[in-house]
Design a protein that fits this description.
By secondary structure, this protein is α/β, with parallel strands linked by helices. The protein has three helices and five strands. The chain has helices at 19-28, 90-107, 133-152, and strands spanning 4-13, 40-49, 52-61, 80-86, 114-119. The longest helix is centred in the C-terminal third of the chain and has 20 residues, at 133-152. The protein is globular. It starts with a strand and ends with a helix. Bound molecules: guanosine-5'-triphosphate and magnesium ion.
């Protein structure tokens, strides 16, 4: 019998970038047209990878901005994060930087699995973020993090 493992994943990002739509699509397989701002919601799904079964607990959060304080429940016992921005909003991408730093402050030296999602790619004419931004930007974020860690040792 396969071993069932529990994983808690938190979805973070600015308001209206599509966090709920992504969670809903992943768990229920359908797209939500309307916009209803989230307070906080959790989804459960059994995910099978090869012979392993994972009980996924997906936390869909209220949109954050650069001033948001992340509660302990978004740090303690969390196995990974989905950071979502919209390609139509440069500001939503800038919020990711501040969220990423807060997560690292919260987790210290612990390895931090993070997936970065640029959503609303179908609204290409409204793009505020070009395709080349991410390959340049993400390595810089990681380098900055590495330098901080080195400085602390
Ligand atoms: N065109 C397009 N619209 C999207 C996409 N994803 C989400 N939307 C729409 O964007 C709006 C906001 O989506 P939500 O999923 O509610 O956004 P959210 O990040 O959960 O918002 P908050 O809960 O307020 O933080 C809704 O009207 C969605 O239908 C996408 O990939 N493309
Ligand atoms: Mg939402």
């Amino acid at each position: 019998m396969p071993l069932v493992r529990y994983r808690k994943v938190v979805i973070l990002g600015y308001r209206s970038v599509g966090k709920t739509s992504l969670a809903h699509q992943f768990v229920k397989g359908e797209f939500l047209e309307g916009y209803d701002p989230t307070v906080e919601n959790t989804y459960s799904k059994i995910v099978t990878l090869g012979k392993d079964e994972f009980h996924l607990h997906l936390v869909d959060t209220a949109g954050q901005d650069e001033y948001s304080i992340l509660p302990y429940s978004f740090i303690i016992g969390v196995h990974g994060y989905v950071l979502v921005y919209s390609v139509t909003s440069l500001h939503s991408f800038q919020v990711i930087e501040s969220l990423y730093q807060k997560l690292h402050e919260g987790h210290g030296k612990t390895r931090l699995p993070v997936v970065l999602v640029g959503n609303k790619a179908d609204l290409s004419p409204d793009r505020e973020l070009g395709y080349l931004v991410i390959p340049f930007y993400v390595p810089n974020l990681l380098l900055e993090r590495y330098r901080k860690l080195k400085g602390r040792n």
